[in-house]
Amino acid sequence: MSAALKKIVIVGAGLIGGSFALALRRAHAVEQIVGIGRSAASLQRALQLGLIDAASTALPEALQDADLVLVSVPVAQTEAVLRAAQPHLSAHTVVTDAGSIKADVVAAARRALGDRVGQFVPGHPIAGREVSGPDAAIADLYVGRKVVLTPIPENDIAVVERVAAAWRLTGAEIHHMKPEQHDAVFAAVSHLPHLLSFAMVNEMVCRPEADLLLQYAAGGFRDFTRLASSSPEMWRDISLANQQAILVELDAYIAQLGRFRGQLAARDGDAMQAMFSQAQRARDAWLQRADANAAQQKTDEDA
Amino acid sequence: MSAALKKIVIVGAGLIGGSFALALRRAHAVEQIVGIGRSAASLQRALQLGLIDAASTALPEALQDADLVLVSVPVAQTEAVLRAAQPHLSAHTVVTDAGSIKADVVAAARRALGDRVGQFVPGHPIAGREVSGPDAAIADLYVGRKVVLTPIPENDIAVVERVAAAWRLTGAEIHHMKPEQHDAVFAAVSHLPHLLSFAMVNEMVCRPEADLLLQYAAGGFRDFTRLASSSPEMWRDISLANQQAILVELDAYIAQLGRFRGQLAARDGDAMQAMFSQAQRARDAWLQRADANAAQQKTDEDA
After folding, report:
1. Strands in chain B per DSSP E
2. d(CA A139, CA A211)
């Protein structure tokens, strides 16, 4: 069986890029994988682990005749990477990214790539682990996970399909959204919970009685604040890049807390219970659907 | 070896009361365990599972010569239980509870028990599972967990020590606090996260695009909202019973979100990153201590 892709280039062969590489390799879908990165040690590690076949710091050579380039670097660095790559892109090379915000990345891509922006298909794999770096990469990170592509008007359908096909080979399920819609959705379901979690821990540790409080923090606190163990740099970048959508979510949430505060101040037990019940039912129904989907995907894989 | 306790009475033999019973039984610390409850089916199940030796609906008989009574019912029902028990308490019987708020329970106990309130030692085991009822009871629920006792001035030291000794036999670690201090601490580390989690899900599901949002909710959302699968009735009761301390926490948190909103609106990346970093460091240090404590307790047990 001949591989679908002759050469792919991974810019940033850490958890996301490295797992993409491993999955394509497992699918026998690629002949050569070249890694590019700022950290020589990290690239060397990716090479040792077999995530990539070659590590390169020479962009022109690395990009030559590449079928697909995956840019998996912190979102704030995407523009610089695309700008450096632009002069060396072959006409048939397709570029995609893995950033968790999209409208900002699209704007950066237009600035960096100019009339070659049609070669860039913005993407966001909804997958992660609590660990990062090349050592965290695993071949089945994307199995059964969603990858959201947010194509732009400049993309040919065939170009979008090439990116989608590569992700499908990793076991992922492809979804399409507009960049702005993507950012609004993820501001609500991902960015807001992260920021609320950081704010909760921060509120607590800035107090004189912080040690006493943390001594009694238990399992609920652990789950609620897990997101506060995420990378501060990454979340600064996401906050800035998705500022408008996050402000909308933050305001809606503060308003929601204000309504609850009013019910509590008025000792309106019925209203509070109704609110809790609605949340509980919705969360349990969501969990059931999510678990059913996961079980279905497991069955499909085993079949 | 003769058991330390001749007879204990468990009012509400579900997860909390049933696990207490199983742990004392495993420690050969009790001769007879009598269960009392509103639900005949639940009592019957507790009997089948061996959590209790006898199920009773006749309070005078059940309480006769009891060494220790554990009231493990929803906090809003504690007063009614104590009121019903009061005329039948032997002079040497000690009563404790497992409610997650304490100042309100102390006030209820004073009203219900009158001059016998010295026989009541308020307590709160910091342990739980996502499941409830007699079938969820396990003998090691309290191993290595904290039990906070909040004695009142009317308690003799010896009475407090009897309750502490029983909990120690379950493997728990005893802490003492004043009721109001307990409620302030748990408003911060437990009640607030629960309410924020309910509010987050509620905010999301009340929107027209709720289905779309939930479709993209992933692991972070799952952890952040786990608390929103808790019992609405229980959290209504806790909210009402700990209203003042929760309002203080809610206001502090809304103010904290307001500060973050200001940083985000001003695109102050440095301030946001500093906030995220402080939270991340504090959370990671807390987690390390918590895991080290858990490992130490495991070692102590194995020794």
Report:
1. 5-11, 30-36, 54-56, 68-71, 94-97, 120-121, 123-125, 146-149, 173-176
2. 41
- Which residues in chain A have Cβ-Cβ distances shorter than 8 Å to B235? 272-273, 276
Q: CA A79, CA A60: separation in Å to the nearest integer?
A: 17
Supply the pLDDT for residue A55: 94
pLDDT in tens, A226-239: 889 888 999 999 99
For residue A295, count other CB atoms closer than 10 A to its CB.
10
Structure-token match 């499909």, residue found: A300
Q: Residues with Cβ < 8 Å from B276, sequence gap 6 or more? A: A198, A228, A230, A232, A235, A236
Tokens, residue A118:
């049609």
CA dihedral A281, A283, A287, A290 (to 10 degrees): 110
| B224 vs A193, A210, A275: nearest CB | A193
User: How many C-beta atoms surround the C-beta of residue B177 within 10 A?
Assistant: 20
**Residues A35 and A13: beta-carbon distance below 8 Å:** yes
In this structure, which amino acid lies at residue A3? A
pLDDT at B13 over 80: yes
A-chain residues near B264 (CB < 8 A): 239, 243, 246-247, 250
Q: Count contacts between A and B (CB, < 8 Å).
A: 263
Note whether B122 and B148 are within 8 A (CB).
Answer: no
Residue-wise pLDDT tens digits, B193-206: 999 999 999 999 98
A148–B contact, CB cutoff 8 A = yes
Alpha-carbon distance of B237 to B240, in angstroms, equals 5
Mutate to test the interface with A, among B75, B100, B197, B203 (most CBs of A within 10 A): B203
Residue A202's nearest CA partner among B192, B277, B160 is B277
**pLDDT greater than 50 at residue B66:** yes
Above 80 in pLDDT, residue B161? yes
Average pLDDT in chain A: 93
Q: Please, are residues B125 and B98 in contact by the beta-carbon 8 Å criterion?
A: yes
- Which residues from chain A sit within 8 angstroms of residue B247, using beta carbons? 261, 264-265
**Ordered DSSP codes for A124-192:** EE----S--SGGG--TTTTTT-EEEE---TTS-HHHHHHHHHHHHHTT-EEEE--HHHHHHHHIIIIIH
Local structure of B121: helix, strand or coil = strand
| Residue with the two structure tokens 């996301």 | A16
Strand pairing of B146-149 and B123-125?
antiparallel
Closest of B194, B192, B190 to residue B148, by C-alpha: B190
CA–CA distance, B236 with B194 (Å, rounded to integer)? 11
CB atoms within 10 A of CB A34: 22
Kindly list the residues from chain A whose CB atom is less than 8 angstroms away from the CB atom of residue B293: none
Measure CB to CB from residue B273 to each of A192, A233, A280 and give the nearest one: A233
CA dihedral A19, A25, A30, A32 (to 10 degrees): 80
Say if B294 is an interface residue toward chain A (CB within 8 Å): no
Contact A96, A69 (CB under 8 A): yes
Residue reference for tokens 């090691």:
B140
What per-residue string of b and e applies to B112-145 under the rule 16 or more CB within 10 Å gives b? bbeebbebbbbbbbbbbeeebebbbbebebbbbb
Q: Rounded CA gap, B2 and B31, in Å?
A: 9
Q: Give CA–CA dist A261/A121, Å, rounded.
A: 44
